[in-house]
């Protein structure tokens, strides 16, 4: 497994942060969270205990804190780590003033330059996805070999893909499987610092942290002393957004009360996959969205702006997948289509592919799909209902049959009657259709 582990800082200067910002972080922890010891502050701020100790010494020199005896607990850092500190009157004033500037307290942020370098170091395009990886990922669904052959290079590019075609043929499923195919983990910062502003990046609702594999206390101590704890080891992120997407979600979100920022969705997706499902049906128009991303998709950098007006650059490293059942020509002009290097169409399945999908879905439920039931189903869909075959139909029908058998207390089995009932729920029917698909 590839690793891009960031090394932790060894001094205040090596953090890349203003010492005053670090001092503010410590006193806010003492003032708001009632933290008293080096061990407690180290755990919350995610900097080595030596650096926390140096910050505390600076605060003592400025008479913002003072020693208040030993704590009752004994920790890995020994006696010095358990010396209690308390804020002086001046320290409380300093903490109050710091809170008016920003109420952020938590892991120390990572400087913008450090974050930029980390994103580049763990670029998604640098990870190789082999044909066998594609085959394994898609082993539980039926996908034409030609489609997988074209998908492989697109995934390895780490750039952008347009998946289009009729509804119900697995576009979203394909996008989600692509997103989860990567094996290496990446490092996501809890927060970054830009011109004194703090931007939260790590989001446990979208970032899946890797489980620690500590091998005893000694190994843990060695690893913690080497790794920059301001980063979280995560699986490559996957963010899926649909009709709810609007332009505000692609900009920094500034909280007027807490006075720090939340990173937008596509920044949380860096080094991973950003899926725009049902493209063309968002709250934002396709033109607005495409105009917003025309530069990032081409130049692989994005620009964000602080509320002060200061803008900064972020590497735009992520696999962007547009999924739509609308015509691409109706959604975007030729100039933008050129900026999406891979365009893959999902087509209605052939009868042979439809049979393979139906067989697979049925067998998972212990059902035996006979030629009679299969032919009858195809006839009802294509001839009676006048609809095309679609990849989603077999599972829909099987789920309907399961529910019907459960209701009637019958063993799970196929029958024409169950198929007919399922098809009644598959499409909205007019009276003439209901007459043709009757009970038998």
UniProtKB/TrEMBL annotation:
<feature type="domain" description="AAA+ ATPase">
    <location>
        <begin position="157"/>
        <end position="350"/>
    </location>
</feature>
<dbReference type="InterPro" id="IPR027417">
    <property type="entry name" value="P-loop_NTPase"/>
</dbReference>
<protein>
    <submittedName>
        <fullName>ATPase AAA</fullName>
    </submittedName>
</protein>
<dbReference type="InterPro" id="IPR003593">
    <property type="entry name" value="AAA+_ATPase"/>
</dbReference>
């Amino acid at each position: 497994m590839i690793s891009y582990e960031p090394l932790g800082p060894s001094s205040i200067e090596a953090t890349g942060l203003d010492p005053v910002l670090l001092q503010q972080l410590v006193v806010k922890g003492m003032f708001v969270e009632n933290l008293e010891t080096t061990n407690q502050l180290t755990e919350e701020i995610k900097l080595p205990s030596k650096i926390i100790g140096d910050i505390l010494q600076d605060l003592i020199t400025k008479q913002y804190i003072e020693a208040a005896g030993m704590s009752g607990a004994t920790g890995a850092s020994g006696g010095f780590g358990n010396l209690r500190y308390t804020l002086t009157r001046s320290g409380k004033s300093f903490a109050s003033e710091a809170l008016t500037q920003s109420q952020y307290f938590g892991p120390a942020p990572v400087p913008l330059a450090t974050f930029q370098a980390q994103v580049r170091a763990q670029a998604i395009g640098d990870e190789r996805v082999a044909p066998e990886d594609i085959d394994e990922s898609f082993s539980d669904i039926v996908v034409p070999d030609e489609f997988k052959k074209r998908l492989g290079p697109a995934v390895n590019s780490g750039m952008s893909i347009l998946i289009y075609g009729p509804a119900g043929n697995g576009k979203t499923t394909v996008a989600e499987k692509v997103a989860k195919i990567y094996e290496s983990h990446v490092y996501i910062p809890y927060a970054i610092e830009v011109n004194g502003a703090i931007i939260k990046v790590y989001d446990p609702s979208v970032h899946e942290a890797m489980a620690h594999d500590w091998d005893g206390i000694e190994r843990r101590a060695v690893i913690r002393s080497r790794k920059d704890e301001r980063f979280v080891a995560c699986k490559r992120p996957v963010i899926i957004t649909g009709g709810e997407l609007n332009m505000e979600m692609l900009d920094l979100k500034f909280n007027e009360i807490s006075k720090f920022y939340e990173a937008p969705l596509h920044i949380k997706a860096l080094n991973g996959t950003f899926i725009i499902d049902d493209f063309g049906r968002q709250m934002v128009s396709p033109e607005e969205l495409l105009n917003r991303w025309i530069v990032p998709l081409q130049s692989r950098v994005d620009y964000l702006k602080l509320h002060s007006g200061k803008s900064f650059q972020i590497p735009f490293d992520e696999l962007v997948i547009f999924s739509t059942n609308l015509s691409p020509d109706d959604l975007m002009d030729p100039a933008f289509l050129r900026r999406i290097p891979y365009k893959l169409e999902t087509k209605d399945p052939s009868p042979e592919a439809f049979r393979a999908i139906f067989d697979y879905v049925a067998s998972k439920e212990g059902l035996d799909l006979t030629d009679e039931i299969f032919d009858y189903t195809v006839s009802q869909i294509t001839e009676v209902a006048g609809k095309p075959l679609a990849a989603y139909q077999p599972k829909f029908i099987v789920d309907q049959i399961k529910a019907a058998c459960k209701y009637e207390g019958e063993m799970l089995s196929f029958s024409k009657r169950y198929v007919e009932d399922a098809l009644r729920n598959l499409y909205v029917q007019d009276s003439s259709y209901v007459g043709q698909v009757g009970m038998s």
